Amino acid sequence: MGSEVSKQVERRKAIAAEKKTLCDLHQSCGEEFPSCAYKPSDRKNWMAGVNPDKLHINKIVWPGTHDSATNKIGVPCITRPFAQCQNLSIYQQLEKGTRVLDIRIQEDRKVCHGILLTYNIDVVINDVKKFLSETQYEIIILEIRTEFGHEDPPEFDKYLVDQLGEFLIPQDDHVFDKTISELLPKRVICVWKPRKSPQPKAGSPLWNAGHLRDNWIDTDLPSTKFESNLKNLSNQPPASSRKFFYRVENTVTPQADNPVLCVKPVTGRIHGFARLFITQCFSKGIADRLQIFSTDFIDEDFVDACVAVTYARVEGKA
Fold this sequence. Notes:
Blueprint: H1 2-29, H2 46-50, E1 62-65, H3 90-96, E2 100-105, E3 110-113, E4 116-120, H4 121-134, E5 140-146, H5 156-164, H6 180-183, E6 188-193, E7 212-214, H7 222-234, E8 245-249, H8 263-271, H9 274-283, E9 292-295, H10 300-314
Parallel strand pairs: 1-2, 1-9, 2-5, 5-6, 7-8, 8-9
Antiparallel strand pairs: 3-4
Helix pairs in contact: 1-7, 3-4
GO molecular function: phosphoric diester hydrolase activity
Domain Phosphatidylinositol-specific phospholipase C X: 51-192
Organism: Malus baccata
């Protein structure tokens, strides 16, 4: 018993020290980067505002959400706090400026996060289609994967094509060099990541797992995650020369050996340091590698920061 208490005391000290490390870095470096003050006049249509004729896919810094469809997961006030990473619906996230969605499903097509369940995938697809019907120039990356420990839904690739076919941008490495205007009226890059079923092939309406990569680490320590994100990003080629999307997640994850198991207070340890991360990318000369930047509980400032870097790239300021 005594050793367990001692362990928890040390864990709390480590977390406090890592939060202080980021706060000190923020105090010394600030959060200034090219066009950092830029804010879209209309987040729902921010890609349209940046100029679709000049905005190449490989110049976009895509604001993304982690475990996107968890706003109604589990049982309210009982299991939900342990798995909820977003409190907005998919439509509300898109309206706020989110352009990359991370969806986990199980065999019966219900969205899940581990063992906890929420609505059917149809809810996600309908929200996406509603948003697409109300906008003209916004491109979405829709990543759908079979959750770890679950089986692939039967014929799910056919379902996605049937539902989104008119909007799907086919898997083609030339897409990265094209502008938004050149891709229209196609609007969705759908990455399907089954666990056992065959991966989508080149030319398919769907994209395979190799086209959306990351280096996720399982930690609740904010400075550890922050530094790992910088290191892993520095090992990537510039976005302009990649033929895949690379994601950095500004999140930390509750750990089973820590008494704080609810997502929101844990991920809050790093949530406010998104602009600091972007600033550090510029300071270290790796801002040209930044592409998908995801978060829990997305907010307007996070979106604005991603759009600001995108705008700076288009205007030749970054």
